[in-house]
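Re: beginner question about structure tokens

> Can someone show what the tokenized structure looks like for a real chain? I only ever see the sequence side.

Sure, here's an example I had lying around. Input first:
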Amino acid sequence: MITYKFRLYPKKAEVEKLEIAKEVCRQTYNYLLAELNEGYTKNEIQNFLLDLKVVNPQMDNVHSKVLQMENQRLFGNLSSLSQRKKQGHKVGRLRFKGKNWFKTFTYNQSGFSLTHLKAKKGILWLSKIGEIPIKLHRQVEGNIKSITIKKSLGRWYASVVTDNVIKRVCGIGEIGIDVGIENYIYDSDGNAYENPKHFDNYHQELKIAQQSLSKKEKRSNSRIKARIKVAKIHERIANARDDFIHKLSTKLIKENKFIAIEKLNIKNLIGISYNAKNIADASWGKLSMYLHYKAENAGCVVQDVDPAYTTRDCNFCGHRNRKLFLWQRQFCCEKCNGELPRDYNSAINILARGKELASLEKASNTGQLVQQEASMKAEATTST
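And the corresponding structure tokens:
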């Protein structure tokens, strides 16, 4: 599956219909959640949609599949809460959705069509809404399975999900990756990638916009406009960060068949560090996530490594130095006097640990397969 995101340009009449559909879906979700709290099952709750249509005639203005997807969304959210609880997270109950907390609705399997006209122009037809101009900046490949409509900062977007699969190809290299603030990453081949510090690039513009927002009268139209302006700057920062991480992760996958990356507890780092803003802006967790899912499709191996002592261990002789301070950017072994950049030394150690962990996991998996085959043969012999 692959998802394409496109900008929509609806006219005033279509905007009104989109707003109605979003609001009806919100009310439907809240109604189904209320029934869930009463103890009804998934199938029983879905049948309540027929009764709800009698009570709320406005539901006739929304495609039936879209309303059914709200039942799927409800139980999908419930399943996610259950999974987080199993992982040890503290979770509460599902909440009712306010107007500002409900931004999407989905057409699944039917009720839509997408037509490419010329250049980057196209038409998206949605049942009960009509034809909406759409900017197709990419070619949509594969059969369309669903389309999710989203409103963000007064603009409308369509996320088109298709059954197309992008086949990536990995390289032949093997690297270890040390992440940081001064250099975004430093790999075991000695390559350093500068940290773009996206938040700092927009800091002055954001500061002025937030100062303007703080001076506006509460609940006034000018305050709403100022709030949207601040939100748009944050959106540009997030888009720039995503673009950088996507390009970097794709480059690393194309060049390497094995990548070892340190696994950090970023939440704890942000909580105890004076450098929390830069750590949050770096978004190392997103880099790791992008590497893992792209590597799976490309046949590349990404190995998570515990970063403990990787900075202090000498990659030449294995000696463990005394603790290094953050301002000490050069590593010098106390035993063999080997010297090289601190992050470079750490990346080499991460690669070595990653290879060791990968070989242990491979041996463990091979042993499990042998045991399974032996047990299957034993069962076959016993049955005959």
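Each token stands for a local structural state, so reading them left to right follows the chain. The radius of gyration is 26 Å.
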